Amino acid sequence: MSGNPPPPSGPPAAPPPAHTTSEHVRATVVFLVLMILVSGFAYPFLVTGIAQVIDPSAADGSLLKDPNGTVVGSALVAQNLSAPYLFWDRPSLTDYNTTLGADTPPGPTDPALGALLNETIAYMEKYGTMTVNATLPFWLVAPSASSIDPDLTPEAVLVQVPRVANATNLSIPFLQNLVNAHITNPPLPFLGVPYVDVLQLDLALLPLIGR
To answer: Are the C-beta atoms of residues 74 and 151 closer than 8 Å to each other?
Structure first.
């Protein structure tokens, strides 16, 4: 006789029942609710709380206020500053509307840049900014990728000084010093370029001209 076990006498055991559709739906709903609670509430509250501790101003939107304490904008968003006594931001393809997406801005060889250049030159000539051998920095005539970038290179701000001086009766050296005092340098030279936040500069300028 061999040592093999005897064959089973009955039919094979049935496999365990598969999960029902209702069980799959219930698991999906539970997972969805958990992800909404985690990603929609818990994570934003955690990140916001940490940001409020590390940098409350940035966490609140980098809001800027006038001397009366009224919020006039954000240091992160450009505005349509067109008064001759103010420094101007870069052109905007969306009229500085934060709810609109912008097309890709024209590059140095794009014919569309010529229209912006001609329009900016006309403004400069109207307000007496153009002087002998003056050049317009690219940042002053070309929109940023977002069309709401509030920053300009120092050269693009300094070229506006004659216009602002003419409109405010402040001296050119005084305004040049004011601009230089608002230049922000990158932490390291290869991490960016120096820039001026135009809205912050104009907020510093307004009390000096009684506005």
So the answer is: no
Pick from 106, 140, 142: which is nearest to 124 by CA? Answer: 140
Within 8 A by CB and 6+ apart from 108, the residues are 138
Res 68 pLDDT > 60: yes
Q: Can you give the pTM of this predicted structure? A: 0.63
Q: Which long-range contacts (CB under 8 A, 24 or more apart) does 158-161 make?
A: 159/129, 159/134, 159/135, 160/87, 160/88, 160/129
Q: Which of 137, 139, 18, 38 is nearest to 89 (CA)?
A: 139
pLDDT tens-digit readout, 87-131: 988 877 777 776 766 666 666 777 766 766 666 666 566 655 555
CB atoms within 10 A of CB 109: 6
Query: Could you tell me if 141 and 113 are in contact, meaning their C-beta atoms sit under 8 angstroms apart?
Result: yes
Instruction: Give the span between the Cα atoms of 180 and 94, in whole angstroms.
Output: 29
Q: Residue 141's closest CA among 168, 159, 128, 126?
A: 159
